[in-house]
Structures are given as structure tokens and as C-alpha cells.
Amino acid sequence: MQRLILFFFFGFNLFILSCQSNIDKGAVLPSTFFDITQYLHQEIEIHQKSSILKTVAFNHQEETKKITSFDLRSDLTPFFKSNINRVNWYDKYQVDTMKTNTTNSFQITYTSLDRKLRTDQMIIKITNGEVQSLEIHNSTKNLFMNLEEVLIYEQGMKYSLLNKQKIIGNKPQVFKMTVQPTD
Fold this sequence. Notes:
Layout: H1 2-19, H2 36-47, E1 52-58, E2 61-67, H3 72-75, H4 77-81, E3 93-99, E4 105-112, E5 119-127, E6 130-141, E7 145-154, E8 158-167, E9 173-181
Antiparallel strand pairs: 1-2, 1-9, 3-4, 4-5, 5-6, 6-7, 7-8, 8-9
């Protein structure tokens, strides 16, 4: 009986060990698309101590303020939420790369093939191996509302967010925020 229990115990452990994945938990899967998260974290590291000039407009009423202490990562949340670099989306976007007229410059455009996805298009402009700008077009459409969002990030912490929203029974709402460093 003890041999049977011992055999069962070792057999069960052998079965559990054989079911474990051979993939290293720390292994990083290769990037499918441009990784916004990695790029923005690098930019945050460089510019986290900068002061900015922030302009916010809501339905054409505008206010501008100089801000010396702020959370850049929080400000860039819409960009992080637009990251399309997900393994399960590798076949959901068409990728086009186009060389521009300038030497060592090119543009990568990701266009959604699935209308259900929030991020419709992402355009990345690169010169001499450095990202110059990132432009993202998001939209959400259903029976009750239409939401369009354009996010632009330019190297050196210049960015803007344009949000147009139309909800049934309400007037269209437009929100725009632009940020540029003052340092």
C-alpha cells in the first residue's frame, strides 16, 4: 500500500512537472508592432523634471497654464491605452512602411482591419533611427455615441489630444489639450 501511495505521489509530481511550460517566465515575446509603452517610458525618463505650458480648450473656451510639477505618465494615459503591440492583434492591423523624401526618414502606418478595435490608425515618423512623431486615431461608435480621438506626440515632450464626442440628444463636445515644454 505504501508503495502504491509513493508511486502515485511521484507519478503525480512527474505529471505536473511535464505539464509546465518551457517558456521562461521572464522571457519577452518579440514585439509585433511599435511599442508605444517602451517609447513613452523612455521619454518620461528624459522629461520627468521638465516644466510645461499646458493649454486646455473645451468647446472653444481655452485656458493656458505653466505647470512645474505634474505627473507626465498620467498625462500620457490615452497614449498608453492606445498601444496596439499585442500578440493577439498581429493579424488585426495592416502595416505600411514608406520612405520619405528626407534621407534616413521613413513612416510606419498601422491601419486597423477590424472596425471593433478602438485604435483605427497609428502613424510613426522616424528619422535617423529616432522617433520624431507619433499620431494615433481612435474611435468608438455605437447607437448612442460617436467618439473620435486624435493623439499626437512629438519628440521632446510636445503632445496634443483632440477629443470629439457626440452623444444622442446632446450637442457635440470638443476637448483639446496641447502641451509643450518650457525648459
